[in-house]
Amino acid sequence: MKKIFLEALNGKILERPPFWFMRQAGRYLPEYREIRHNIPSFLDLCYNPVFASEVTMQPIDRFKPDVAILFSDILVIPDALGRKVSFSKGIGPKLDPIISTKDVENLLVNNVNHHLSPVYETVKKVKNRLPEDVSLLGFAGAPWTVATYMVEGGSSRDFLKVKTWAREDAERFDCLLSILVEATTDYLIGQIEAGADAIQIFDTWAGIVPSDQFNKFVITPTKKIISNVRKLKPDIKFIGFPKGIGPEISTYISETGIDCISIDSTLSPNYAAKYLQGDCTIQGNLDPVALLIGGKTMLKAADEIIKNLNDGPFIFNLGHGVMPQTPPENVVLLAEHIKSLGNQ
Ligand code: CP3
């Protein structure tokens, strides 16, 4: 059986779009909360191949999307590099912030494959369980986004620490980004060798980079990771998700080497169809709040996106992750609606 997700990544126009949802595994699912409840730390879940593969499969069993995304997190990279990472309820991620030159020098640059081997084990397990027509998507955070968490020590409102550091000591900040490029390359090759069919790079905070630093912090590291991986895996397809970058999206598409651009909900599908879809596959971009509301409101918003983008290479997704308050029935309704548009 064919994998229509990979066909769309190869530029094929399909009867109905393949679909999956960012954060399709997670707290909105009762079956996720049940497993999560019994594991004290979120990272322990990411490093437990039995539970992580189970959680990866939960949305597949429930609403049969065309893609399973590996269950892990972008912050396993700082953890593998030796920084302390924890997740506390209601607060989000907490990291020991990188402050000094020593902190950068002390990163465990050769620890990635050893530390993340349980994640590769999860990929293998999921691959064995997936139906033949469902693709397995691996992922990592882009260096800039991962660096924001490492320097800020968690989520941030103003990104003052990372922006100050990047401007005042560009050389050292570059050094951190280079370490992240190498670590992410190793991690993605590990996922592909274990069975990932394609890769998504999440650059959630690309939109806050000042324009004079955009090339250096967003384009260059992403481009390097893609070319590094393709030296060993020339055929692997990449999706980029540079959230909120506005008109720079055209440069991102032409410079990085991605095959598909994942657009957030602020970009109009009409604009994407007109100006971007000739150059790559489009993925997106239903507002996660429309999914949370459900019913006719949700289906109308979804249809508007499909109407604009389904005449070119297109993968249906959200503009950002499923919100934890989302009723799972809404996801089922949307999935059935998209499946009803074609025979695959
Ligand atoms: O289903 C999937 O999409 C796969 C799993 C996945 C998770 N995180 C699981 C997760 C993926 C692809 C991510 C990516 C990720 N992680 C991003 C990029 C995409 C985005 O959402 O912007 C970022 C910025 C992170 C960092 C991160 N991880 C934050 C800020 C948080 C806390 C906020 C939150 O939503 O809780 C996490 C924790 C996290 N990652 C959870 C899950 C299911 C919730 C933790 C829990 O169950 O306690």
Query: How far do the termini sit from each other?
Result: 10 Å
What is the radius of gyration?
19 Å
Instruction: List ligands, each type once.
Output: coproporphyrinogen III
**What percent of residues adopt helix (DSSP H or I)?**
40-55%
* Residue runs with pLDDT of under 50 for 5 or more positions: none
Proportion of residues in extended strands: 5-15%
Specify the structural class: alpha/beta
Record the strand order, biggest sheet: 1-4-5-6-7-8-9
Topology:
Layout: H1 4-9, H2 30-37, H3 42-46, H4 49-63, E1 67-69, H5 76-80, E2 85-88, E3 92-95, H6 101-105, H7 112-115, H8 117-129, E4 135-141, H9 143-152, H10 160-168, H11 170-194, E5 198-203, H12 214-232, E6 237-242, H13 249-256, E7 260-262, H14 269-276, E8 281-286, H15 288-293, H16 295-309, E9 314-318, H17 328-339
Parallel strand pairs: 1-4, 4-5, 5-6, 6-7, 7-8, 8-9
Antiparallel strand pairs: 2-3
Helix pairs in contact: 4-8, 8-11, 9-11, 10-11, 11-12, 12-13, 14-16, 16-17
This protein binds coproporphyrinogen III (CP3).
Structural write-up:
- This protein is an alpha/beta fold.
- It has 17 helices and nine strands.
- The chain has helices spanning 4-9, 30-37, 42-46, 49-63, 76-80, 101-105, 112-115, 117-129, 143-152, 160-168, 170-194, 214-232, 249-256, 269-276, 288-293, 295-309, 328-339, and strands spanning 67-69, 85-88, 92-95, 135-141, 198-203, 237-242, 260-262, 281-286, 314-318.
- The strands form two sheets. The chain has a seven-stranded parallel sheet with strand order 1-4-5-6-7-8-9. Strands 2-3 form a two-stranded antiparallel ribbon.
- Strand 2 and strand 3 form a beta hairpin.
- Helix 9 (143-152) crosses helix 11 (170-194), helix 11 runs parallel beside helix 12 and helix 16 (295-309) runs parallel beside helix 17 (328-339).
- It is globular, with a radius of gyration of 19 Å.
- Bound molecules: coproporphyrinogen III (CP3).
- Coproporphyrinogen III (CP3) binds at residues 22-27, 36, 42, 69, 71, 73-75, 87, 92-93, 139, 155, 202, 204, 321.
- Coproporphyrinogen III binds at residues 22-27, 36, 42, 69, 71, 73-75, 87, 92-93, 139, 155, 202, 204, 321.
